[in-house]
Amino acid sequence: MESDSLAYMELAIHQAKLALESLEVPVGCVFIKDGKVIASGRNRTTETRNATRHAEMEAIDILMEKWQRDGLSKSEVAENFSKCILYVTCEPCIMCAAALSILGIKEVYYGCANEKFGGCGSILSLHSSYSETLISGEVPQRKGFKCTGGLMTSEAVSLFRTFYEQGNPNAPKPHRPLVQKEVE
Ligand SMILES: [Zn+2]
């Protein structure tokens, strides 16, 4: 089981490397169901100019689209998520951890901690917050999930280090237009 976990995390690391090659903050992930990779994702916040396009969100959208295409009902989608295990190179941020918990994912393994935005222990503990009841019936309930960090941490961290040592070309993107206007 442990060797499988490492193999899956290798795939997540590979996704993070692809992100790095695209000058994105290097985070990658894979979703596993019944022992198979069913989706992978990498951070695409720069490419999409959308700060929410984290690796997890990319993979979740792939699954949602697929399952909707297959005509799965809401409860079938929920059942599928309840069988999914996520391997992600960095602790899910608060946004992603909340999404994963609403979707009811079974389990998460991550590489390094996310000390600024981590939603699985570092800042908030959304994976374990069964008790934080959301009262309105309109609001989706959050479910807890099992979460284990520290898988291939040094690989995950070294990708971040490489990214920041490159001079972080994406960081200083001040309030300047990034693209020339097409009409001059
Ligand atoms: Zn996130």
TrEMBL record:
PROSITE patterns: CYT_DCMP_DEAMINASES_1, CYT_DCMP_DEAMINASES_2. InterPro entries: APOBEC/CMP_deaminase_Zn-bd, CMP_dCMP_dom, Cytidine_deaminase-like. GO terms for biological process: tRNA wobble adenosine to inosine editing. Residues 3-131 form the CMP/dCMP-type deaminase domain. Keywords: Hydrolase, Metal-binding, Zinc. GO terms for molecular function: tRNA-specific adenosine-34 deaminase activity; zinc ion binding. CDD domains: nucleoside_deaminase. Pfam families: dCMP_cyt_deam_1 (PF00383). The keyword Cytoplasm does not apply. PANTHER family: CYTOSINE DEAMINASE FAMILY MEMBER, TRNA-SPECIFIC ADENOSINE DEAMINASE 2. This is tRNA-specific adenosine deaminase 2.
